[in-house]
UniProtKB/TrEMBL annotation:
InterPro entries: Biotinidase/VNN, C-N_Hydrolase, C-N_Hydrolase_sf, Vanin_C
This protein's name: CN hydrolase domain-containing protein
Family to which this protein belongs: Belongs to the carbon-nitrogen hydrolase superfamily. BTD/VNN family.
Zinc listed as a keyword: no
Coiled-coil blocks: none
PROSITE patterns from the UniProt entry: CN_HYDROLASE
Organism name: Parthenolecanium corni
GO molecular function, one term: hydrolase activity
Secretion signal, residue range per the UniProt entry: 1-18
Start and end residues of each CN hydrolase domain: 1-251
Keywords: Hydrolase, Signal
Length: 472
């Protein structure tokens, strides 16, 4: 473990310990670092052997910080797991025993007992760069707290795929998720708060999300997301800048009206675009795009209207928009964007089928300019957007609304409507998604629909064989 990081964690525990907090969630890589690109990083040196949660073990009996602070604590570690070749062989150093490495979240209860362990199923670059393994089947790891909430656990890249999320929500019936991440933002549709709040909204599930952006200079965005209600807390954060978000969270099991909230904060809100904050893994050339003002269908004084559609045999995206120009600008413009096809999300993944349909503010340039932060001039007010999607592909994938305003916040749930329905025509299942603005907005960056990939497809060629260093 990185000593400086341990200090940050202990400080965090001490601070929230004074506030009768029930549960604290730390980000992915928080203790170990996410040093995918550091050739000198030896993962075995930071990986720990983690006992099974069934053993009810208290790993640090004397100086348990979780015990002293009396709260549930979720942390992320690299786990070293020794698969004994012969169950009777107690010698862990035996060379014939397989050493597996997992990216693992563990949870301690108020007494420091280990009560849950989850091994990340959908690996990002840690498989190719660090030799981390995944379990063959997704684990549905849950724990029930003494305040009556059953949590499921997921890590980072897990958020975009069907499993283990569907198992947790539909089989284990969890009412909230603990989500540790090290995610960075990608314009225009996958800025972290847009992704997680859209996800929470779409799945109507409370998410306690703790993020640490993995690439230098990039931003993530931690928060407490509340399903069909607005997030209780939300920040964009920069690399290695530690902040604690605290909020009273209404119990997700109850369907009563939300109580009024008392909030405490330990950070300054940040709201400006900064070039280095975004990483353009996305490629604009796979989108079909068009300036919103090209071939206008209606123009009435300064009220403009246009529509756009993009269709293939499996997919239709239709967008209609009405807007108003407050001041003439030659720097930025909205573009309609649509894509149905494959993209890869990491060095290790291939053929992830996604669908995207929406509009975003771009630089005024013939070849896109939508992947960099837009120049925000307050030049437009959007009075109406209607988006309709019809799709017959990957009908079980998670679909989310992706919205973003110039403060890098997703729109309030009061500003838009989003609905998804699954129907059957003949032998074909299909989904219909409808999304629209409820009231005019003047600080819009992005408004659209994103169908996330159903399953991750790791590229077998990217599994590297590595020399495991001697255990000691
Ligand atoms: C190591 O494992 C092999 C195969 O299971 C076994 O035959 C051998 O006795 C073990 N060696 C030690 C030192 O335990
Ligand atoms: C392990 O030990 C038990 C009892 O000592 C024995 O019955 C069993 O055959 C052993 N298993 C192996 C794989 O050696
Ligand atoms: C664990 O990962 C390493 C590195 O990718 C790989 O060589 C090994 O075969 C994996 N083990 C299993 C059981 O999948
Ligand atoms: C989850 O809910 C479904 C439907 O209400 C029920 O059939 C199932 O047994 C529940 N599963 C668990 C693990 O509670
Ligand atoms: C979302 O979940 C809450 C309870 O957590 C429930 O009261 C509400 O009706 C749900 N909303 C929708 C649209 O399903
Ligand atoms: C739309 O605009 C483009 C460029 O301004 C033009 O080339 C094209 O003919 C127009 N299409 C229609 C249907 O008017
Ligand atoms: C979509 O495209 C079709 C064919 O090009 C056209 O007939 C239809 O009017 C378009 N719809 C919208 C809303 O633009
Ligand atoms: C439509 O779906 C079918 C069946 O999955 C597939 O073979 C075909 O390539 C898809 N077409 C496009 C344009 O994606
Ligand atoms: C933008 O418009 C302003 C005023 O109309 C003009 O002075 C400026 O040169 C234009 N900039 C570019 C890059 O076209
Ligand atoms: C995925 O995309 C990244 C960045 O564009 C590229 O470096 C990587 O090789 C791609 N991976 C695969 C498996 O195609
Ligand atoms: C962006 O949206 C949030 C609510 O989601 C709101 O609090 C904030 O004021 C908005 N910012 C702007 C510039 O409109
Ligand atoms: C593994 O280590 C051995 C001995 O140190 C070395 O000869 C071999 O080339 C290494 N293999 C790989 C794939 O690095």
């Amino acid at each position: 473990m990185v000593l400086g990081q341990v200090f940050v964690f202990l400080t965090a525990l001490a601070v929230v310990g004074l506030m009768s907090v029930d549960i604290i969630v730390f980000p992915e890589c928080g203790l170990t670092g996410c040093n995918y690109w550091d050739r000198n990083y030896v993962i075995e040196e930071v990986a720990e052997i983690i006992p099974s949660p069934d053993s009810g073990v208290v790993p640090c009996k004397k100086k348990s910080y979780t015990q002293r602070n009396s709260m549930y604590v979720a942390v992320n570690l690299y786990e070293k797991f020794i698969e004994l070749d012969n169950q009777n062989d107690t010698n862990l150093h035996n060379k014939s025993n397989d050493i597996l490495l997992y990216n693992t979240n563990i949870v301690f209860d108020r007494f420091g007992r280990l009560i849950a362990r989850y091994r990340k199923f959908n690996l990002y670059a840690e498989r190719t760069h660090l030799g981390v393994n995944s379990t063959k089947e997704p684990e549905f790891s849950i724990f029930t707290t003494d305040f009556g909430v059953t949590f499921g656990i997921i890590i980072c890249f897990d958020i975009i795929f069907k499993q283990p999320v569907y198992g947790l929500l539909y089989e284990k019936n969890v009412s909230a998720l603990i989500f540790s991440g090290a995610i960075y933002s990608q314009l225009p549709f996958l800025v972290v708060p847009s992704l997680v709040s859209g996800w929470s909204y779409s799945m109507n599930t409370t998410v306690l999300f703790s993020d640490m952006p993995v690439k230098k200079g990039s931003v993530g965005g931690s928060g407490i997301f509340m399903g069909k209600s607005d997030p209780l807390r939300l920040i964009m954060e920069e690399h290695y800048d530690s902040k604690i978000l605290i909020s009273k969270v209404p119990k997700p099991v109850s369907s009563a009206n939300l109580p009024s909230l008392e909030e405490k904060t330990h950070e300054n809100e940040k709201s400006n675009f900064c070039d280095s904050m975004f990483i353009a893994d996305e490629k604009l050339d796979y989108y079909t795009y068009q300036s919103i003002s090209q071939n206008l269908t209606h123009k009435c004084n300064n009220l403009l209207m246009n529509s756009f559609n993009h269709t293939n045999e499996n997919y239709t995206c239709t967008i209609r928009a009405v807007w108003q120009i407050n001041s003439i600008t030659n720097q930025s413009e909205y573009k309609f964007l649509s894509y149905a096809g494959e993209r890869n999300f990491s060095t290790a993944s291939i053929n992830n089928y996604v669908e995207v349909c929406g509009l975003t503010l771009c630089h005024k340039s013939p070849n896109g300019g939508c992947l960099e932060p837009p120049i925000f001039e307050d030049a437009f007010s959007i009075t109406m957007i209607h988006i309709d999607i019809f799709s017959v592909s990957t009908v079980d994938a998670i679909v989310i609304p992706s919205t973003l305003n110039s403060s890098l916040h997703p729109l309030s749930v009061k500003n838009f409507r989003f609905s998804k329905s699954k129907t059957r025509i003949g032998n074909h299942e299909n989904i219909i998604v409808h999304m629209n603005l409820i009231e005019p907005v003047s600080n819009l960056i992005t408004f659209g629909f994103y169908k996330l990939p159903e399953v991750s497809n790791p590229d077998p060629a990217s599994y590297h064989s590595r020399n495991t260093t001697e255990l000691n």
